[in-house]
Design a protein that fits this description.
There is one protein chain. By secondary structure, the protein is of the alpha+beta class. The chain folds into two domains: about 1-100, Disulphide bond isomerase, DsbC/G, N-terminal (Nuclear Transport Factor 2, Chain: A); about 100-240, Glutaredoxin (3-Layer(aba) Sandwich), CATH 3.40.30. Helices cover about 40% and strands about 20% of the residues. It has helices at about 1-35, 90-100, 130-140, 160-170, 175-185, 195-205, 230-240, and strands spanning about 45-50, 55-60, 65-70, 75, 80, 85-90, 110-115, 120-125, 145-150, 215, 220-225. Strands 7-9-8-10-11 form a five-stranded mixed beta sheet. The model is unreliable at about 5-20 (pLDDT under 50).
C-alpha cells in the first residue's frame, strides 16, 4: 500500500512538472509569435491558462486583458463568461487589476485639502472644467473632518491642462482649487514644475480612471462619478468600519 501511494505521488509530481513545462513552452511561443506578427502590441506582462482548455489570458502592460490560443495564431479581445456560474471572468480580472491600494497612492502629486480635524481620508481625481466635479465639490464642502487628496487629472483638453498647471503652481493650491470650483474664480497664471500633473494622467491611464470625478476611499473602494454629501458620508463611514 505504501509502495502504491509512493508511485501515485511520483506520477502526480511528474505530471505537474510536465504540465508546467508545457505551459512555459506555450508562453514562449505566444510571446514570440505575437511580438513578431503584431509588433505594436503593448508588452505582455503575464500569460496564464484560463478555465477554457487551450486558451490563455494575456495581461498587457496597459492592464488590458486579451486571450490567445497556445500557438499565438489567434488573438481574442472580449469578455470570457462562465455560463455555469454566470460570472464575467474578464470583468472580475480587470477589476482586480485596476484596484487601487489607498496607502500606495502617490500623495506627493496631490493637493492636500483638510476639512475640520481631517481624521477621515479621501482621494479624488478631478478635471477643472468638469461640471460634475464642480457639483461634487459643492457637496464635498458640506462634509467635515476629512482630508482630501486632490489629484489634478485634466482630461478635457488644453484649457483643462492650463488651469491645472496654474492651480498646482499657485502659492496656495488648495485655496486656488476651492475658489475655482466653488466660486468660479479663475486661478492666477503661475509657472512651476508641473510634472506631477503628467504623472497623474499616466496614473489614470494605468488604473483605467476614464472619467472625473473618480473617488477612492481608504478601504480601496472606487466610485466613478459625482455623489452627494450623504453618499460621501456613507462612503467615508463604510471605509473605516
Amino acid at each position: 500500500m505504501q509502495h502504491l501511494f509512493r508511485s501515485f505521488a511520483i506520477a502526480a509530481f511528474s505530471a505537474l512538472i510536465f504540465s508546467n513545462a508545457l505551459a512555459q513552452g506555450h508562453e514562449a511561443t505566444i510571446r514570440k509569435n505575437l511580438s513578431e506578427r503584431i509588433p505594436q502590441i503593448p508588452k505582455i506582462e503575464e500569460i496564464t491558462p484560463t478555465p477554457l482548455a487551450g486558451i490563455y489570458e494575456l495581461r498587457l502592460s496597459t492592464n488590458e486583458i486579451y486571450y490567445s490560443d497556445a500557438a499565438g495564431n489567434f488573438l481574442i479581445q472580449g469578455n470570457l463568461i462562465d455560463t455555469k456560474s454566470k460570472r464575467n471572468l474578464t470583468e472580475e480580472r480587470e477589476n482586480k487589476l485596476s484596484a487601487i491600494d489607498f496607502n500606495t497612492l502617490p500623495f506627493k502629486d496631490a493637493i492636500t485639502i483638510v476639512h475640520g480635524n481631517g481624521k477621515r481620508k479621501l482621494a479624488v481625481f478631478e478635471d477643472p472644467n468638469c461640471g460634475y466635479c464642480k457639483r461634487f465639490e459643492r457637496d464635498l464642502a458640506k462634509v467635515d473632518n476629512v482630508t482630501v487628496y486632490l489629484f489634478l487629472m485634466p482630461v478635457l483638453g488644453p484649457n483643462s491642462v492650463e488651469k491645472s498647471h496654474h492651480v498646482w503652481c499657485a502659492k496656495d493650491p488648495a485655496a486656488a482649487w476651492t475658489n475655482m470650483m466653488q466660486k468660479d474664480m479663475a486661478p492666477t497664471a503661475a509657472q512651476c514644475n508641473t510634472a506631477a500633473v503628467e504623472r497623474n494622467l499616466e496614473f489614470g491611464r494605468r488604473y483605467k480612471i476614464t472619467g472625473t470625478p473618480t473617488l477612492v476611499a481608504q478601504d480601496g473602494t472606487r466610485v466613478p462619478g459625482a455623489i452627494n454629501s450623504t453618499q460621501i458620508e456613507k462612503l467615508l463611514a463604510d471605509a473605516t468600519k
